[in-house]
Q: What sequence folds into this?
């Protein structure tokens, strides 16, 4: 008995030893991924990069903030509230961005890939680091264009628990220093990026495209801020760039654009002989699109999708029973598209002496010979989407012997007493929501795929961040500012030729023409407000005055003429008006050029100086 | 059991009610009122445009209390009793930046005058109807000329709120018309159709300084149209 006891004791004493051999307490946790695992597995690094691409900030793009398309002078809001039609003045924090969490994550990644990435080849390490630095440069550009100079943090900041946090409190860098940092970073990494031919991950030409845009912004701020009666600056240069730097920045922008144009292998999309459809496809065709440089892609099959089409498709083409028609383009934008003979795009609704309407046989006739980009951007009366006519007619004009009486209906797709159409299935309506209030609908970025405007399926249309069309206009503007007008004309005329203009349609160039070209080519691509800001024109174009036709948003209502026995019976007339649901003229104040910095940021870091005017 | 249920329910109810009183803060009852003045005269501005800032130190939450100046130059705020700091926000009003802090003690009620140095002020303004137009004369008195004058405008409106953003008709003077400010300026606005049948309208004259977003206005005047 005593012996058995002894054996048992020995066996018991050995048990933990055998368990230790199996490392019972040192297994890999199945739900935690360690740094060593991430930085030695290229597939995990790619998924991490996907997360960072996804976190790039957006002001107005189709999957986030698209509502703000309706807050400037491209569109107004025809959905269920009036917030964007009644912006008394843009708040000072409107474009505020102080997102250092992405910067910190990228800085950490850059350090950890060096520290832990032992199994990666040096080439892989260089490429991933380059891509991370591209994303960091992109984020700094987003910060500087909203806030002016921000602290440049390029390594992780570690608190030493000494009770004194001042080493972590970095002051703001100068605005020009941030732009110089972006240029230097992009130059350093552009040849290491790889990803040749990709239009969803950064390659050499993506880096150059970002440089082209960022340097153009810096150049125009340097030039136009100093042309203001009182330039917007801070004593420390956190805001405001000296005028002497303008030439340097424009030159850098032009060089970057030229490299893309000459060696990038991109070309303007010209696959569809119908020029209007062609321009629509230039942004929406995801395969064999030689124009797109970088896009944020979506895929329904992987549940990466958005509701932009559900919310903004034309009313009578919608496939769901709710929403639609929220962002509706305004007449201001429609009239910015020139006629193909180069004349002003103003629509002709009245005779020259303003005594009578001009009568059109078809609804679309008033838009004949317009820039084809109008068709590709806006659904206007008499056109179709997904093969269905978007029925836009406000009502009828009945001749009573002396004058016209306007008859409109609150019922969509209703008939007048003569049995013919009174109000179209897509409105427009003066007060009803989720029907266009302006007489126009959005075409750009609306998904043509079946059922993509339903809540159940939604859309996987992509969002184009950079495309050759913009680069050509960047090049034209930079060349124009540098006095190389002949080159500028070549670039801008290439863009115009694709839109249906004759070759060399512009013979002389002004900044105003280039500005209008950007407005019509890049509408609904998150450019308008930033362009007006860098030209320092926003406070004049949107000055908050109800007498200013640029600050007020206009609508175009088509009517069918009811005048039996007259040759004008059955023809169409058009009425321009301030959009009925539009309330407050757009007002951009001097304090909006740089958004205000959150008081919490200043409280945490007293070295941060405030932006001017707030 | 039943006899116990009712008293305990009542007890719970009283506790809830008592709790409500304990949990809520009293709303601020003290008021601070004041005017933005130059030479003891209030400065007219655009309503909801110009802002002063109130700060209070000593609490964990340190964030500004914005105080908007009314169009007649007055302002008011409901506050708790305490010591506040009033700051003239840089580049915000039509006056020279002055970042000196004004200390304000609020005990019940308090009144404060905020002195400012405007760039230009409107003097001797006369606004009247003549024919189918509203005409005006005024003199612009340069106070601080470190910034140039950009524009002087007569605004006509249908309500007492008249400014650059709320008006029915305007007449702008710019450039050479403002070359000699010692002269009396004249304005004339044709009465717009929207006001033609009204008994009266309201008007005021505003002066815009280069690089300052907000304008300085004369007091609103009622103009009889009939």
A:
């Amino acid at each position: 008995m005593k012996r058995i006891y002894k054996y048992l004791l020995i066996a018991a004493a050995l048990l933990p030893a055998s368990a230790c051999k199996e490392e019972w307490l040192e297994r890999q946790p199945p739900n935690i991924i360690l740094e060593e695992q991430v930085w030695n597995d290229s597939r995990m690094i790619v998924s991490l990069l996907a997360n960072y691409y996804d976190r790039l900030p957006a002001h107005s793009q189709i999957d986030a903030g698209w509502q703000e398309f309706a807050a400037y002078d491209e569109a107004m809001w025809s959905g269920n509230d009036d917030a964007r039609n009644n912006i008394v003045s843009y708040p000072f924090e409107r474009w505020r961005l102080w997102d250092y969490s992405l910067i910190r994550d990228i800085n950490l990644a850059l350090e950890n890939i060096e520290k832990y990435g032992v199994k990666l080849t040096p080439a892989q390490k260089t490429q991933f680091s380059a891509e991370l630095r591209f994303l960091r440069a992109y984020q700094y550009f987003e910060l500087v264009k909203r806030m002016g100079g921000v602290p440049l943090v390029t390594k992780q900041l570690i608190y030493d628990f000494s009770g004194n946090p001042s080493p972590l409190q970095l002051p703001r860098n100068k605005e020009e220093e941030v732009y110089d940092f972006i240029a230097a970073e992009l130059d350093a990494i552009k040849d290491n990026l790889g990803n040749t031919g990709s239009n969803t991950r950064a390659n050499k030409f993506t880096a150059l495209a970002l440089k082209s845009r960022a340097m153009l912004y810096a150049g125009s701020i340097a030039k136009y801020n100093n042309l203001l009666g009182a330039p917007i600056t801070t004593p420390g240069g956190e805001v405001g760039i000296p005028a002497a730097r303008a030439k340097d920045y424009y030159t850098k922008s032009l060089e970057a654009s030229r490299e893309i144009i000459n060696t990038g292998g991109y070309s303007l999309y010209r696959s569809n002989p119908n020029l209007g459809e062609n321009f629509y496809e230039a942004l929406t065709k995801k395969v064999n699109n030689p124009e797109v440089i970088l896009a944020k892609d979506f895929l329904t099959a992987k549940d990466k999708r958005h509701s932009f089409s559900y919310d903004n498709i034309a009313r009578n083409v919608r496939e769901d029973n709710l929403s639609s028609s929220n962002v509706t383009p305004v007449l201001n934008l429609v009239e910015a598209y020139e006629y193909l003979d180069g004349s002003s795009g103003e629509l002709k609704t009245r005779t020259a002496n303003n005594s009578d309407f001009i009568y059109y046989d078809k609804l679309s006739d008033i838009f004949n010979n317009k820039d084809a980009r109008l068709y590709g951007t806006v659904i206007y009366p008499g056109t179709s989407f997904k093969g269905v006519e978007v029925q836009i007619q406000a009502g009828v004009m009945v001749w009573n012997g002396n004058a016209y009486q306007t008859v409109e209906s609150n019922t969509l797709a209703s008939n007048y007493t003569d049995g013919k159409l009174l109000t179209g299935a897509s409105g427009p309506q003066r007060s009803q929501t989720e029907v266009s209030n302006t007489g126009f609908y959005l075409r750009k970025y609306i998904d043509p795929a079946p059922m993509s405007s339903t809540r159940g399926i939604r859309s996987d249309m992509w969002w184009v961040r950079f495309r050759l069309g913009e680069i050509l206009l960047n090049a034209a503007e930079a060349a124009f500012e540098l006095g190389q007008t002949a080159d500028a004309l070549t670039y801008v005329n290439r863009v115009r030729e694709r839109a249906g203009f004759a070759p060399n349609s512009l013979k002389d160039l002004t900044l105003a023409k280039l500005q209008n070209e950007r407005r019509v080519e890049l509408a609904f691509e998150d450019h308008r407000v930033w362009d007006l800001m860098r030209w320092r024109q926003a406070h004049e174009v949107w000055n908050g005055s109800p007498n200013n036709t640029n600050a007020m948003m206009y609508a175009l209502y088509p009517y069918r003429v009811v005048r039996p026995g007259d040759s004008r019976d059955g023809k169409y007339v058009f009425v321009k008006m301030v959009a009925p649901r539009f309330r407050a003229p757009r007002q951009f104040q001097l304090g909006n050029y740089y958004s205000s910095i959150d008081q919490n940021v200043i409280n945490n870091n007293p070295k941060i100086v405030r932006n001017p005017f707030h | 059991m039943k006899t116990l249920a009712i008293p305990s329910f009542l007890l719970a109810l009283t506790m809830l009610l008592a709790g409500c009183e304990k949990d809520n803060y009293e709303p601020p009852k003290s008021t601070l009122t004041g005017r933005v003045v130059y030479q003891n005269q209030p400065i007219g501005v655009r309503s909801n445009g110009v802002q002063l800032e109130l700060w209070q130190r000593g609490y964990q939450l340190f964030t500004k209390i914005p105080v908007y100046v009314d169009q007649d130059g007055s302002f008011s705020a409901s506050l708790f009793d305490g010591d506040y700091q009033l700051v003239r926000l840089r580049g915000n009003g039509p006056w020279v930046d002055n970042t000196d802090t004004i200390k304000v003690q609020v005990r019940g009620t308090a009144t404060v005058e905020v002195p400012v140095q405007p760039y230009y002020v409107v003097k001797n303004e006369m606004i009247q109807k003549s024919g189918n137009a509203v005409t005006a004369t005024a003199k612009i008195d340069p106070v601080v000329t470190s910034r140039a004058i950009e524009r002087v405008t007569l605004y006509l409106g249908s309500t007492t709120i008249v400014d650059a953003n709320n008006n029915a008709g305007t007449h702008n003077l710019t450039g050479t018309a403002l070359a000699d400010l010692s002269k009396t300026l004249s304005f004339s606005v044709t009465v717009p159709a929207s006001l033609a049948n009204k008994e009266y309208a309201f008007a005021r004259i505003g002066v815009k300084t280069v690089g300052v977003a907000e304008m300085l206005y004369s007091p609103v005047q009622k103009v009889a149209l009939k």
About this structure: The mean pLDDT of chain A is 94. The longest strand of chain A covers residues 554-562. The interface with chain B takes residues 88, 228-231, 539, 543-547, 585, 587, 589-591, 599-600, 603, 612-614 of chain A (CB under 8 Å). The first helix of chain A runs from residue 2 to 21.
